[in-house]
Amino acid sequence: MVGKLNRLPVETQMALKQFACMGNSAEFDMLAMAYEKPIDERHRHLWEAVRTGLIFRSDESYRFLHDRVQEAAYSLIPEEMRAESRAPMDCEAEDRKEPEILFTHLMEAIGLALDLKGGRMFIVDFGGSVYSANHDGSKRRTLLFAEGNLTGIAFAEVPSGN
Fold first, then answer.
1. I need a labelling partner for 152 at 20 to 30 A (CA). Which of 56, 110, 121, 159 fits?
2. Nearest CA to 2 among 63, 57, 74, 80?
3. For the chain, what are the domain ranges?
4. pTM greater than 0.70
């Protein structure tokens, strides 16, 4: 897999390495916040990876098609630079808030989707329940309870027909 990545254009390799630091998937809004370059440039750089089937592009996000692709992209980053590669996503230490628990009593949380514009989050757990809340944890609602066989969650904003 690393050999396949090494055959990609240098800009694509760099974009994949940065994307790999964000996890298995990233919404366009998250990519735009994490990196200084315009999102259109990021799309151009990632297009070759989409074309070759290494990542998938939806209307609002990218995702690695397999965890081995993400692992290979991350492995291309020299070990001594891995913390530095994540730096654009990290807040400055003095600006960072202490972490707080927003949800409890989940049956092993397995999915999180953020509605950045609406200030909401959606969580799915292994028991098949789906919850929503504001980003600060307020206005928590159970949308589905113990439905079973849910393995993740995604958020999509559908434009109105106006």
1. 159
2. 74
3. 2-94, 97-162
4. no
Burial class (CB in 10 A: 0-12, 13-18, 19+), 55: buried
pLDDT per residue as tens, the chain (162 positions): 888 888 999 988 888 888 888 888 888 877 776 666 777 888 888 999 999 999 999 988 899 988 888 899 888 888 777 655 444 444 444 455 666 666 676 666 678 888 888 888 888 888 888 888 888 888 989 988 888 777 778 777 777 776
Instruction: Mention the CATH class of domain 2-94.
Output: mainly alpha
Tokens of 4: 């396949």
The single-letter code of the amino acid at 147 is E
Q: For residue 5, count CB atoms less than 10 angstroms from its CB and return exposed for 0-12, middle for 13-18, buried for 19 or more.
A: buried
Query: Residue 2: in which H helix or E strand, if any?
Result: helix 2-6
